[in-house]
Specification:
- It is built from 15 helices and 11 strands.
- By secondary structure, it is α/β, with parallel strands linked by helices.
- A 9-stranded mixed sheet has the order 6-5-4-3-2-1-9-10-11, with helices on both faces. A two-stranded antiparallel ribbon has the order 7-8.
- Helix 9 links the parallel strand 5 and strand 6.
C-alpha cells in the first residue's frame, strides 16, 4: 500500500445519461447536452500528465461525469492508465452499462485491486425500466472480480414509501444495507436538501439505514460554516477537468494550472476563500483531511459495509488507502503563513470591490 499524497476530483465531460432520475442535480440545471467524453489526446500523454513525479506521489482519483460516467468508451482505459501511473481510481456509475463491467472484470489483477466502483443506486428509476436485475448482476461481477465497491442511494421524498422494500432488497442482493447520501437542490442559493421535510425530519426518516455517509453529510450541512476555518483544498486536493487539463483549488477558487501544459504543477490552499454555503462533498474532502481542524471520520467509513457472511465491500488494501489523510503534520502551514494568506485574501477582496465600484461609476458616467 502506498502513502496517498492528494485527492483529485476529476470531471469527465460526458453530459448525457441513460436514466432520468427526478432528483438529479444535472437535470435540475438542464446540463444534459447529449455529449459523450472522447479523450482528445493519446492515453500515453494523459498517463505522463499523471506521473507521480508531477503530483508528488500516489493520489486517489475520483472519475465522475456530468451524466453516466461509463457511457464513454475511453473511461476504462483512462482509469487503467492512471492506475499504471501509480494511483488509485474511483469510478462513479449508475451500474447499468453492462459491457463496461465485463471489460473491467477482465482487467489484470494489478489494476483491479487499485480500483473502486461507486454504484449510485437509483432504485425507482431501475424499477421503472426493469433494470434492477442488470444492476445486481454488475455489482456481483465487481465483487467476484475482487474490486472494491459501495452502493449508495439518494433519499428522495418519492422513495419514502419504498424504504422497507429497499432495505430488504439490499440485504438479499448485496448482503448489507446500502449507504445513503443527501438529495440536494442545486437551484437554491444555500444548496438546500431536496425535500419538503426539515433537516431533522429528513434525518429521522432515513437514519434507519445506519449510514455513516448520511450522518457525515447531515453533520456538515447542519454544523459547517463557510470561511470559518482554514481549508487545504488546493494542496491536499484539487478539482480537475480531464478534457482541458485545467485544475482548480476546488469547485470554486483559483485555477492553478494545466496538467498537460505545465511541467511542474503549482499548489496553493484555498484557505478561507470558499464561496460555497457548505462543503456539500465534505464526505470526501473533509474525510481525506482538507480541514485538519475538522474532526472528520476516515473515508472508508463512508463507503464500506460488512455483510452477513463476514465479507466486506472494500478489500483490505482499499480500506487502508481510504483510511489515510492527505494533509499530515509536515503539510500544515505555520500560523504566520496562514495569517499572511488571510491578509493577502483581504487585500484581494478589497481590490476586487474597488474595481467593481470603479466599473459602476464609469458605466454611470457613460449613460
Amino acid at each position: 500500500m502506498k502513502q496517498i499524497k492528494r485527492f483529485i476530483d476529476c470531471y469527465i465531460p460526458t453530459e448525457t445519461c441513460n436514466l432520468r432520475c427526478h432528483y438529479c442535480y444535472i437535470t435540475q440545471k438542464k446540463r444534459f447536452h447529449q455529449q459523450l467524453f472522447h479523450l482528445n489526446r493519446p492515453v500515453e500523454e494523459m498517463k505522463e500528465a499523471f506521473s507521480q513525479e508531477k503530483w508528488g506521489g500516489s493520489c486517489i482519483i475520483n472519475l465522475c461525469a456530468g451524466g453516466e460516467t461509463l457511457l464513454a468508451e475511453e473511461v476504462v482505459d483512462v482509469a487503467s492508465a492512471m492506475i499504471e501511473a501509480g494511483h488509485y481510481v474511483m469510478i462513479v456509475t449508475n451500474g447499468t452499462v453492462s459491457g463496461r463491467f465485463e471489460q473491467i472484470s477482465c482487467l489484470p489483477e494489478r489494476i483491479r485491486r487499485n480500483l473502486f466502483i461507486k454504484f449510485s443506486f437509483h432504485y425507482l428509476e431501475l424499477l421503472r425500466l426493469g433494470w434492477l436485475e442488470k444492476f445486481c448482476e454488475n455489482v456481483l461481477k465487481m465483487k467476484q472480480a475482487g474490486i472494491s465497491f459501495t452502493i449508495e442511494v439518494t433519499p428522495s421524498d418519492e422513495l419514502i414509501p419504498y424504504i422497507e422494500e429497499l432495505k430488504a432488497f439490499c440485504i438479499e442482493n448485496f448482503g448489507a444495507l446500502c449507504h445513503v447520501t443527501i438529495a440536494r437542490n442545486d437551484r437554491t442559493e444555500g444548496i438546500d436538501i431536496l425535500s419538503k421535510m426539515s433537516l431533522e425530519e429528513y434525518q429521522n426518516t432515513w437514519k434507519g439505514f445506519q449510514s455513516e455517509l448520511f450522518e457525515m453529510k447531515c453533520n456538515v450541512l447542519r454544523n459547517f460554516y463557510r470561511g470559518g476555518v482554514f481549508c487545504y483544498a488546493g494542496i491536499g486536493s484539487v478539482y480537475l477537468d480531464l478534457m482541458s487539463g485545467d485544475y482548480k483549488q476546488c469547485y470554486c477558487g483559483q485555477t492553478l494550472g494545466n496538467i498537460y501544459q505545465d511541467s511542474v504543477l503549482a499548489f496553493r490552499a484555498i484557505g478561507k476563500r470558499c464561496s460555497f454555503p457548505y462543503c456539500y462533498n465534505g464526505h470526501a474532502f473533509l474525510c481525506f483531511g482538507d480541514i485538519p481542524a475538522y474532526a472528520a471520520p476516515t473515508y472508508d467509513r463512508m463507503r464500506n459495509r460488512q455483510c452477513a457472511d463476514g465479507t466486506e465491500w472494500l478489500t483490505e488494501e482499499m480500506k487502508s488507502v481510504m483510511q489515510q489523510k492527505v494533509i499530515g503534520k509536515d503539510d500544515l502551514l505555520k500560523k504566520r503563513e496562514i495569517i499572511q494568506d488571510t491578509v493577502c485574501y483581504g487585500k484581494e477582496l478589497m481590490t476586487s470591490k474597488i474595481k467593481q465600484v470603479v466599473r459602476r461609476l464609469i458605466h454611470h458616467e457613460t449613460e
